[in-house]
Structure prediction request, 241 residues.
Amino acid sequence: MRLEPPEKVSREQITLDVREIEPLLQAPAMDLKPWPGAMITLKDGRTLYIREAKMEEAPMMLDYVGQVMKVEHDFYDIVGARVYAEILGWYRKRLKDPYTLVGLIDGVWAGFANGRLKNEDINISLHTMALMRGGRIGAVMYYAKAYYGFEILGNQEWWATYESYNGWWRWGIGMAQPSYPWPEYQHELGGARVYYITKKYWDAVVKDYARQIVGADLAFDVPDEVVKANEVLRVPDEVLV
Prediction:
């Protein structure tokens, strides 16, 4: 849009360096405590190591999720598209205060969980995916990121929503999550209903429920050999969702 200035000016053109624009487009980041890395023994005996994704792994992750977008069952197409955008938003610094966790089995990418902080109190859960079958990997990843929010970051509320029937049944119904009145409250994933957990409800009920589903608890004292075996992420050879 162009308008004539209401007064004579000494400079009619101003040149901006993109480095001066970037602070306006990239929100100042909150000082998030890092996810310390944890392992868990799955129900089938495999060891899943959960760590923060590395920025240099994003292109490889995007290539794989691009294939998930082509899967037309159980809403993986829309989940894949949104996860792709979220990974890219994290990579291009266009997502406010994100966290991206990957679950690895001997270096192979087996699970994904991400979200972002609305503020110090509210944690917005975005997506959770199991990329390998068996072992309840999806449940472990969901538990891990909820644990991260409540136990490590000190969040007071957890906001979630669901695109698939399976996710809604397992977590929305399974956790007996209440929902805020809609449409006054809308989740950023398509304006869907906001299902939420409070810290008090997490401590009283949900934490134990999630542990029961997972079948074990997270171990944060991870042996060096497990960390080393999962230092380099490799994507699965095929899409198994």
In short: The mean pLDDT is 95. Helices lie at 18-25, 58-68, 76-91, 137-152, 165-173, 199-214, 224-229. The CA atoms of residues 28 and 159 lie 22 Å apart. Residues 33-229 form a domain with the Aminopeptidase fold (CATH 3.40.630.30).
